[in-house]
Amino acid sequence: MKRREDRFFVGRTEFDSPEVDQEVLISNEFNLKTGNFYNVKITRSSEFDLYGIPV
Amino acid sequence: MKNKKINIVTLGCSKNVVDSEKLMKQLEAGGYSVTHDSNDFSAGTVIINTCGFINDAKEESIDNILRYVRARESGHIENLYVMGCLAERYIDALQAEIPEVDRYFGVNNIADILKETGITYRPDLSISRTLTGPEHYAYLKVSEGCDRSCAFCAIPAIRGKCVSRSVGELVSEAEQLAKSGVKELILIAQDLSYYGLDLYKKRMLPELVSELLNIQSLEWIRLHYLYPADFPLELIGMISENPRICRYIDIPIQHISDKILGMMKRSHGRAETEAILHKIRQEIPGTAIRTTLIAGHPGETKKEFNELLEFVRKFRFDRLGVFAYSHEEEGG
Fold first, then answer.
1. What is the pLDDT of residues B252-268, one digit of tens each?
2. 3-state secondary structure B60-87
3. Which of A18, A46, B79, B268 is least buried, going by the fewest C-beta atoms within 10 A?
4. Which pLDDT tens digit goes with each residue over B294-306?
5. Nearest CA among B18, B29, B67 for reference residue B185
6. Which residue from A3, A17, A37 is facing B222, i.e. has the nearest CB?
């Protein structure tokens, strides 16, 4: 989990590097902590990013 | 200096970020309050760490220098310094064209910059950094410069030949980073495949990664990036067996046509490139393969471009960066 933005937490998978690759957006209604690892189920995608929910 | 605040502005790549972070640590140890904010004009001293690679980046660096030159005319800035690749490469032209900058420094001369700000370089802090990003990941720069002579690239002309840092020093730096909360360590260099050859007379990346894995609080180790020729094959087994090394291979192939790869002075052709890509995909199941490509290199006609396009369609890279060719005066 990388950082918290207005509506989303912003995370990254093992397959993505900071700055150059896509991110995983997770609604900030979940109780997550920046810097921690979570298992996330991907629920939808946009042009560049993935959206998911913690499992 | 009246205002004991220094702002560092970093442009360009992650390697520049590491240079800025080392400089910031030394400045803080010397009693300065240091910020890292490209829109902060309140500091007494501003140091701009520039990028000199490809035209867009050079323009961005020059725009930022001019922004601070203008801010200085009306604000608090007493000293304006410029360091990094652009300054290394074009110091004479910059001094002539933008004389409002107090002093230009090239690369690898942190001691001179510190001297200019009135403090002495502390060797005991050589592996210490003030992290500028989130605290849970950090870059580890394993070497400076590059021994390749790719036709499109000016890095060796700017940064010189490859100089690897020792395994011991890198492990110490990584331990410090881990202690400060870093969980993901991203190894960077112009060419990780080459690491160690200058210092140990052998390629040492697998050994370095093994040592770093001993630092238990590092949950992820990521590698950026691996030149296709001389790809350290030992790594393939290590990555597939060790979940703490990210299944993420960043292998910039630049092109696939033998003719263009030859003109680029790359030491791999189509057959070797395909062989290593397929080997990685087969032997590390689920790995993400990232590459970068250059379109429009001199000599490329529709025929070679279509060959590249066809290859990209067929291989389906997991991550892909594509750049239009940018001419460099001092390519290899």
1. 999 999 999 999 999 99
2. HHHHHHHHHHHHHHHCCCCEEEEEEHHH
3. A46
4. 999 999 999 999 9
5. B18
6. A17
